[in-house]
Write a structure and sequence with these properties.
The chain is of the alpha/beta class and 128 residues long. It has a single domain, classed as STAS domain (Transcription Regulator spoIIAA), CATH 3.30.750. Helix content is 36%, strand content 32%. The protein contains four helices and six strands. It has a six-stranded mixed sheet with strand order 1-2-3-4-5-6, with helices on both faces. This is STAS/SEC14 domain-containing protein. It comes from Zoogloea oryzae. InterPro entries: STAS_dom_sf.
Length: 128
């Protein structure tokens, strides 16, 4: 578990990673957990990444932070074109993150947003 003003849990699964965020999520919370995931040797073999924001009360980041996080993720995933990325929740920042990820052309499958973990997991694990 990583702690800032919000709480972030990163759970590695067989073929993917799930990041759960709760409370008031800050750029520091997102930055530290993203660096943990993107710096791991498993990043090139991941088939999915699910970012669960359902328990986030608020997400306190600037638009420039969103652009930076998306670009850094695209660079970290440049060798992994099969990964599927799903976001769960409906905060406006989630929509901006997805837009930025997709605009920078990350992978063959566009990032998507879901209201439930079940739907996100179905999308993320499709075809394997």
């Amino acid at each position: 578990m990583l702690k800032g003003r919000g709480l972030v849990e990163v759970e590695w699964e067989g073929s993917g990673v799930v990041r759960r965020l709760s409370g008031v999520v800050t750029i520091d919370d997102l930055d530290v957990s993203a660096a943990q995931i993107q710096g791991d040797e498993r990043i090139d073999r991941l088939r999915y990444g699910i970012h669960d924001f359902r328990d986030a009360i608020d997400i306190d980041v600037l638009d420039d932070d969103i652009e930076f996080m998306a670009m850094r993720a695209v660079v970290a995933l440049e060798r992994n074109v099969v990964i599927r990325i799903a976001f769960v929740g409906d905060h406006p920042v989630i929509h901006k993150l997805i837009e930025a990820f997709n605009r920078f052309g990350r992978g063959r499958v566009p990032c998507r947003r879901f209201d439930s973990m079940a739907a996100a997991r179905c999308f993320a694990t499709l075809y394997f």
